[in-house]
Amino acid sequence: MNAHIVAKFDGELEELLAHTLSMGQLVRAQLALAGAALQAFDDGRAEEVVRKDSEVNGWEVRIDREIESIFARRQPAAGDLRLMLGVSRVSVDLERMGDEARNIARTIGYFDPADPARKTMAAALAPAFSTADLMIREALRSLKDRDAVVARQVIGLDRGIDDVFHALIAGLIETHGVKREALRSEIIAAWIAKSIERVGDHVKNIAETVIYICEGADIHHEFYTEPGPGSVRPDSVEG
After folding, report:
1. I need a surface site. Which of 28, 78, 97, 132 has the fewest CB within 10 A?
2. DSSP secondary structure string, 33-67?
3. Are 230 and 142 in contact (CB under 8 A)?
4. What are the residues whose beta carbons fall under 8 Å from the beta carbon of 210, sequence distance 6 or more?
5. Where is the PhoU domain positioned along the sequence (predicted)?
């Protein structure tokens, strides 16, 4: 491969990465807007989050097409191949994070405006949104810089989101049957907390993918079994 072709190939990979980072920034903005909509119980902002979801989906389609095109023309190997496979994984996780932001926005409308507990629940969820935003920011930075150290730090941040979710569920169990007037808001808050927890899981996936890109190590599954002679064959599955 001559120098001109190599330079052009490198440019295509950098453009692919830039598009993935743009998608990530859009999802980050989408989640931040969902958090702001929750704190203000703002239907207008919530609707904007839902509208942005189609733009996120559009980025995923575009990135998939770019990857297919590069594969067909360049036949990448080694580190370049890992980058492309990694970017493909990242775009899927970003799209699913966008779905969760959309779900959060739609859920906000279920709160009863007359229920004073809704403000307490929104305040309890605020730290999870802040942690998720930090995770996304740092995960995108680790991807941009191909920095596995930062990626590992992102993985450690996920516990903060899990703690918010578990605290809300524990509170829901504790108050069930005691504060009936607050039950509706607590259940809705638990739905939102679960969506944020899923966002955290997807960001953690992205960080693990960055480690794969940088080191070639797939840490997504710490324990796994290689398919062996006894594995189910595709042609043996009926229906």
Report:
1. 78
2. HHHHHHHHT-HHHHHHHHHHHHHHHHHHHHHHHHH
3. no
4. 86, 139, 142, 143, 146, 147, 148, 150, 151
5. 22-107, 131-210
CB-side neighbour CA atoms (13 Å) of 175: 16
Contact predicate 38/125, CB 8 Å: yes
Instruction: Report in angstroms the alpha-carbon separations of 29 from 40, 42, 53, 58, 180.
Output: 16, 16, 11, 16, 35
pTM: 0.87
Domain with 76 in it: what CATH number?
Answer: 1.20.58.220
Residue recorded with tokens 């930062």: 150
Q: Is residue 147 part of a domain?
A: yes
Overall domain count for the chain: 1
Q: Per the domain annotation, does 132 fall within a domain? A: yes
> Which structural domain, as residue segments, surrounds residue 205?
3-221
